[in-house]
Design goal:
The protein is an alpha/beta fold and about 300 residues long. The protein has three domains: about 110 residues, Cobalt-precorrin-4 Transmethylase, domain 1; about 110 residues, Tetrapyrrole methylase, C-terminal domain (Methyltransferase, Cobalt-precorrin-4 Transmethylase, Domain 2); about 45 residues. About 40% of the residues lie in helices and about 15% in strands.
């Protein structure tokens, strides 16, 4: 595979895609460069045009904006690529923070790089990093995970795969799902793992809550929860120790087996034996289910 090199400022024959971060709360965090780019481009591809229009009005930006979000990506992509190929410059922005980071954007970026269209990223606001540097947890290394699966079993399975990671973990969560997510984290990481909740970053009611996962879970159970959250969890200081994860009965048997293989390094047969014993299940039947043998003669 040949290396593809695209210089961002080499007077291309096509237009340029600019990735423009927007404030995560405080409008003063908009950079001068971001304002200049939004004023000079031919078109703005916005996650929500109504939300972005308020930002444009605040900075007296007259550039036309069209919607580009997860529900119209397939229809919009050919249109935006055609405009870029015709020489128009386009700025892409999400409602808050950086495009592509738990927001729309990656599909257009991938299509542009495949077609040799320059992509110019602007630095700017990001909730995950903003929370990390003030959290008091180790700022590096870290893993940005973003939003977990909304379904409880899948969410727990995702967290189980992270229990042995030694670096700080960064998640996003909506207020109405915070209690359940903290409950899943207590099951997966154990009640004593240090963690931080960062709420309403850069806004008037910005707040950091620091404690163990159990303490934060108790806070969430007794508090009216408002605002968008960044959840930061300290890394595992002893990755070789057995994970304090959830009772194995919280997951389907086959998933329990897979987690023991991935997290604890058990051989398949040893994992099957352990899961069957813990759940009072038939080991031979679980063996057949795990190896997909039920349909065989």
């Amino acid at each position: 595979m040949a290396i593809q090199a695209t210089r961002s400022f080499a007077n291309p024959t096509t237009g340029t895609l600019y990735l423009v971060p927007t404030p995560i709360g405080n409008l003063d965090d908009m950079t001068m460069r971001a304002v200049k780019v939004l004023k000079k481009v031919d078109l703005i591809a916005a996650e929500d045009t109504r939300h972005t229009q308020m930002l444009l009005n605040h900075f007296a930006i007259k550039t036309h904006a069209i919607s580009f979000h997860e529900h119209n990506t397939e229809a919009r992509l050919p249109e935006l690529l055609a405009k870029l190929q015709a020489g128009l410059d386009i700025a892409q922005c999400s409602d808050a923070g950086m495009p592509s980071i738990s927001d729309p954007g990656k599909e257009l970026v991938a299509a542009c790089t495949q077609q040799g269209i320059p992509v110019v990223p602007l630095p700017g606001a990001n909730a995950g990093l903003t929370a990390l540097i003030a959290s008091g947890l180790a700022p590096q290394p870290f893993t940005f995970y973003g939003f977990l699966d909304r379904k409880p079993q899948q969410q727990l399975a995702e967290l189980q795969l992270l229990t042995k990671r030694p670096e700080t973990l960064i998640f996003y969560e909506a207020p109405h799902r915070l209690k359940r997510t903290l409950g899943s984290m207590v099951k997966a990481f154990g009640p004593d793992r240090p963690a931080v909740l960062a709420r309403e970053l850069t806004k008037r009611y910005e707040e950091f809550l620091r404690g163990s996962l159990a303490e934060l879970q108790e806070w969430a159970q007794t508090t009216t929860i408002r605002g968008e959250f960044v959840v930061l969890v300290s890394g595992n200081p002893n990755p070789q120790a057995p994970a304090p994860g959830p009772a194995v009965t919280d997951l389907p048997l086959v998933e329990q087996v897979q987690l023991l293989i991935e997290n604890d390094g058990l051989a398949p047969n040893a994992a099957i034996k352990k899961v069957a014993r813990a759940n009072h299940a038939n080991r031979q039947q679980l063996y057949r289910e795990f190896h997909h043998l039920d349909g065989e003669e």
